[in-house]
Write a structure and sequence with these properties.
It contains eight helices and seven strands; from the N terminus they run βααβββααβαβααβα. It is α/β, with parallel strands linked by helices. It folds into two domains: 67 residues, 3-Layer(aba) Sandwich (Rossmann fold), CATH 3.40.50.10480; 98 residues, Rossmann fold (3-Layer(aba) Sandwich). The model has no long low-confidence stretch (mean pLDDT 93).
Amino acid sequence: MQKTFKFAVTVGRSENVALEKLAQTWAAKFGVKYVERGSRGSLGFLLDQERVEALLVATNKGPQVYTASGTFFFHPSMAVLRVQRLKKYEPDHFSAALALKPGMRVLDCTMGLASDAVVASFITGRTGTVCAVEASPLLHFVVSEGLQNYQVEDVDLNNAMRRIETVYAEADEYLYTLPADSF
């Protein structure tokens, strides 16, 4: 069962018409309020004023989630270093434990920042399938957008990120929808 999470959508300080339209589209997608930023103050001020747990913020660098605890945005994190190591034929404990090979089908039931999914996608390659499941709507959204749009210098890493299919669901519920031997 998905927990209700109260949030609103706004734009960053360097707002422009395109970002405002994008933020309004996100608000409509999630069925939440779009909050005009203008000169209304800091994100902390808007968080308090709107009485929400988080703000989904449209920025030039992609979606970010702002909460009282800090800001979350997508970055390929340790996947960058792990893929660099794999390219040098150095070991990766995760891929060794799963005995990953090209063409395999992998299901990541705890997507998070998708580091494991990116490594799996790099190894399984074009002939493989990697699906990552995430139960948090904002985490799923930000990471899914990042996997499709974030650019690094390593073309292989970009390709690995783009191949990952993401699913917004509770993993245990999603597993029941899959046919036998899907992954």
